Sequence to fold (229 residues):
Amino acid sequence: MPEAKKHILVVDDDTRLRSLLQRYLREQGFLVSAAKDAAEAEGFLKTYLFDILIVDIMMPKVTGIEFLERLREGGNWVPVILLTAMGEAADRISGLETGADDYVPKPFEPKELVLRINNILKRTAREKDIASKLVFHGIVYNLEKGELKTAAGETIHITPVERTLLNVLGGKPGEVHTREELAEILGVAENLRTVDVQITRLRKKIEIDTKNPRYLQTVRGKGYMLISE
Fold:
């Protein structure tokens, strides 16, 4: 099955440049949408998921920096490349501080822009892959697939309850979850001891020494915490 095309949103008030970028990026195999300003871009973002945004800083009404600030304040961390006028160091610094992933000064070579796009896409793909896996001395749990496997790739059987615990605790590694919270999620709110029993069983599958757990830790007086390598 062919890999889905990466979707790029170009945001620039310059009609000619916007059209040129749209055509060139499509020729490079990307799916491309284009917006003339921040308002139109925000409309696109309500409808589509994008892999990366290319945003011009100097736009009327809402600048590229202001648009980026809105994105980050709203919790949207889609990668953003800013297009800046040559010599505008203050804008470049401001953009990076606001959360831009890269910037390209105008005028620029389209090939350079594509290289920067691909570099960011490769990095985000690696980060996503790392974030979707928990590693315990060679044993790997895939959060997306719900699979626990040995270093050799052999599947380790886990129960639905154990899978739920790994998903909840592994979804926020290093964060303490109370016994009450876990009991509620597991549907055993009236029996906190059940949580302890399930934690003990899960430790047997991911820990080397269950009496001195390294990964699935008890935080005395608070609850449990999962740590990945």
Q: What stands out?
A: The mean pLDDT is 88.
